[in-house]
Amino acid sequence: MIPTLPFGRSGHESTRLIFGGAALAQSDEAGSRRALELLLAHGINHIDVAAAYGDAERWVGRWMPEHREAFFLATKTGERDYAAAREQIRRSLERLRVEQLDLIQLHNLVSEEEWELALSERGALRAAVEAREEGLVRFIGVTGHGTRVARMHRLSLERFAFDSVLLPCNFPQLRDEDYARDFEELLALCRERGVAVQTIKSIARRRWGEGAAPTRSTWYEPLEAQADIDRAVSWALARPGIFVNTASDLGLLERMIAAAERCVRAGRYAAPGEAPMQTAVDALGMAPIFLRGMHTQR
Description:
Elements: E1 4-6, E2 13-15, E3 17-20, H1 29-41, E4 46-48, H2 56-67, E5 72-77, H3 82-96, E6 101-106, H4 112-118, H5 124-133, E7 137-143, H6 149-159, E8 164-168, H7 171-174, H8 177-193, E9 196-200, E10 204-207, E11 220-222, H9 226-237, E12 242-245, H10 250-262, E13 264-265, E14 268-269, H11 274-284
Parallel strand pairs: 3-4, 3-12, 4-5, 5-6, 6-7, 7-8, 8-9, 9-12
Antiparallel strand pairs: 1-2, 10-11, 13-14
Helix pairs in contact: 2-3, 3-5, 6-8, 9-10
């Protein structure tokens, strides 16, 4: 089974591997059923979706009447102003068929202009706090993509006591010295304040080549071979205190679960050394999927 870890100061012991609900964005009945079976069979007890993920909230909502107690349930609002975020949070509750969310997150909050609006008195954060006061949500987090996200998350934590953050973490991206420095500084701050850290893009190989026809629903080209996924997942999970969200393609879910289970030894993950990770980067042509100046993601 997959080890658990306290999800920040929430009081919930979440599995180190979290189900990334974006994989359900364009799912069908069979895919949704298969995903639920895998989560239940392997004890994954934390689901992360978003209002922007197509039909993902509706599919998860079909699970909730019978399985609500089995999962810590998180979603996201990408709205920036108060009224729109307030409406979207309530729509998510309806789609998910629950009376309360465990976590609402401000989605991809990296742009300075959007950040200023969202965290202002007329912004989305006010709607999230209001929802918490009304008992509609329990905790509030912030997510983001790009090379500036760790720095922006630190600013967010200085402005408000967010309960969780989410950002990219994989070996090629952490080879960017500036990103690595910002990431480590954010991690230290989160440890100090009891903020949960979710990570994404752990099995990213590189961006799809120009003109290439994507073969996965991930916007980046993922690793495919089980051994490569094992290596990438174990490298990410070996970092103390972080969670890894599964990729946005149902076809990769079972492989990531297998990696998370196969790489654990005595309840802990052992990181592959620097040399085998760099060898894999060279052999597979891996590269950072976020470049300088890029602060948004599809």
